[in-house]
Amino acid sequence: MTNELRIAVLGVGMMGADHVARISSKIAGARVAVVNDYFTEKAEELAASIPGARVVNDPIDAIADPEVDAVLLATPGPTHEKQLLACLEYGKPVMCEKPLTTDVETSLAVVKAEAELGKKLIQVGFMRRFDNEYADLKALIDSGDIGRPLVVHCAHRNPAVPPHFDSAMIVKDSLVHEVDVTRFLLDEEITTVQIITPSANTNAPAGLKDPQIAIFTTETGRHVDAEVFVTTGVAYEVRTEVVAEGGSAMIGLDVGLVRKSAPGTWGGTITPSFKERFGQAYDTEIQRWVDAVRSGAETGNYVDGPGAWDGYAAAAVCEAGVKSLESGAPVAVDMVPRSSIPGA
Ligand code: ISE
């Protein structure tokens, strides 16, 4: 494709608006052609600030629009199934912010619909795979230099979350990234999940089970633990340590510049949110997606990164996680084998 990719951005809340700004200022070979949001005024205000962008009020009309080449979905999760199926129906490549859909059954239906089409059109926005530090860690593991990984320790801390965030959302919205990181780094599926809830943070909203400690077991019996703590009141922190047979490696120290100054103090800055911590990852993710879509007609491949299957696997692990949250016991992940869906 020689022309710029014309993207429809559906949903312009925090993430969608961030992607609109990114596409308009940093991404080569693409522009925002259409903006859609449930709140029309918000869409109109944003479109007015982007040369050549217009508002289409109905999300399915935006997907079907003949002057739209690809779709970026940053709409609420419950709308994804219908919108993804529409993207498949109209043959539009789509970058879908997580979750793929909000439950396992509909995620599987989307995987099957894409497989039947025989074309990979869906990419899921698990952006950590594009973060330079995670990419380095993955390359180190794949090089074999530290031997076979046996254990992974993850820490995932948010300073605060919106008021509607409940205990299950800690699993589906936050822990889900550790699920994807585990599958990405270890290249195998997660088979059981246990979630332990220690004494809750007294500064968290009443009833919120925060922090949570998740334990995953993988197909070959490897162990992953993840501390997810979303009301620390401090900063955004994401760390991963891999312990292998021939050494260990850690990313996410997030130290940046360390300043020493009189009278005898030292320190640096703290990262406020995922928008800053993973800014580079989002930029790389969207640029690589745009490049893949632009060359898709020749290569037959419209994704460069996690696809619908990865979204389904994450949904299945999170469903087991939510069950474990209620019982505290390990819960087996219920997933169909990938080989049962030709083309998935
Ligand atoms: C948020 O929705 C994200 O996706 C962030 O990456 C994650 O770190 C945060 O915990 C979630 O709430």
From TrEMBL:
Pfam families: GFO_IDH_MocA, GFO_IDH_MocA_C
SUPFAM superfamilies: Glyceraldehyde-3-phosphate dehydrogenase-like, C-terminal domain, NAD(P)-binding Rossmann-fold domains
Residues of the Gfo/Idh/MocA-like oxidoreductase N-terminal domain: 5-125
InterPro entries attached to this UniProt entry: Gfo-Idh-MocA_inositol_DH, Gfo/Idh/MocA-like_OxRdtase_C, Gfo/Idh/MocA-like_OxRdtase_N, MI/DCI_dehydrogenase, NAD(P)-bd_dom_sf
Annotated EC: 1.1.1.18
Boundaries of every Gfo/Idh/MocA-like oxidoreductase C-terminal domain copy: 138-333
Reactions mediated catalytically: myo-inositol + NAD(+) = scyllo-inosose + NADH + H(+)
Keywords (A to Z) from UniProt: NAD, Oxidoreductase
Family membership: Belongs to the Gfo/Idh/MocA family.
Assembly behavior: Homotetramer.
Function: Involved in the oxidation of myo-inositol (MI) to 2-keto-myo-inositol (2KMI or 2-inosose).
Name by which UniProt lists this protein: Inositol 2-dehydrogenase
